[in-house]
Amino acid sequence: MAEHRDPHPATFEGLLAEGASVPTEGWDFSWFEGRATEARPSWGYAVSMSERLGRASAVLDVQTGGGEVLDFALARVAAPKPPLLTVATEGWPPNVAKATALLRPRGVAVVVAAEDDPLPFADGAFDLVVSRHPVRPHWDEITRVLRPGGTYFAQHVGPSSVFELVEWFLGPQPDGVRSARHPDRERADAEAAGLDIVDVRAERLRMEFHDIGAVVHFLRKVVWMVPGFTVEACEQRLRELHERIRAEGPFVAHSTRHLFEARKPG
Fold first, then answer.
1. Is pLDDT above 90 for 77?
2. Whole-number Å distance between alpha carbons of 165 and 252
3. What is the spatial distance between Cα 126 and Cα 72, in angstroms, rounded to a whole number?
4. Of the candidates 169, 165, 189, the residue with the CA atom closest to the CA atom of residue 253
5. Which residues make beta-bridge pairs with 153?
6. Second label for 58, Cα 20 to 30 Å away, from 81, 201, 243, 264?
């Protein structure tokens, strides 16, 4: 076996402290450069979103996070022009502040709405609803706020995503947990809410964690992976994973993503 070279030679305690101190607001993952990697889906969601933004007049971005994906897509609208109205929702206060500061210069209003709240908009208000990695899609609400002929275009987290890491801390998960977010189930739920399915595509993507600090930051940022995660509660398993990474190289996991496009009948 080739010798593993740790790109961040530091003590276990130092790596834990570093991972625990990095701010977690927003969906900017640039801190992970050199620390962790994740392959990207082949469909290029943000670029595909920008193409649809150019053809829309009223757009809603659900659970925008820090607004980074919407900002990227709006900056790349080529033709014919950006939507006349663009609104985003977000429920976590640090992300609300970050998204507002980022999106206000583009004329985007950020509306405070918790992930389980009804969408605070009138029936048929939008011809395009987008979302990247919603905690869960509320199909009845999405259908309600879409105009007849309007489109829902999103990238969802799929079943058993990063479960190699989840089960390192939580142990084997039951089939019902592992199969949650399955695209077939979401297809059925969307159709039951009155949407016509245009496209569903799924991919399984390789991830690598190169040091334990990256693991800590990831689990603090993506809080639903290991609910209630803290360094103190998980210190022993973190130490065991740290030793494994140093001895064997990066910890490999796999994310799952699916592209979802549906239309409200006109």
1. yes
2. 8
3. 20
4. 165
5. 130, 261
6. 201
Tell me the C-alpha distance between 118 and 237, whole Å: 39
Q: Which residue, 154, 61, 71, is CA-closest to 113?
A: 61
pLDDT surpasses 80 at 154: yes
The residue type found at 260 is F
pLDDT digits (tens, 9 = 90+) for 211-231: 999 999 999 999 899 999 999
Q: What is the largest CA-CA distance in the chain?
A: 61
| Sole residue written with tokens 């507002």 | 100
Query: Are 17 and 44 a contacting pair, CB within 8 Å?
Result: no
Computed on alpha carbons and rounded to an integer, the radius of gyration of the chain in Å comes to 20
- SS3 of 235, please? helix
Q: How much is the pLDDT for 9?
A: 54
User: So what's the pLDDT on residue 30?
Assistant: 86
Closest CA to 152 of 47, 255, 73, 56: 56
- Tell me: pLDDT of 8 over 70: no
pLDDT higher than 80, residue 3: no
* Strands 146-157, 196-209: pairing kind: unpaired
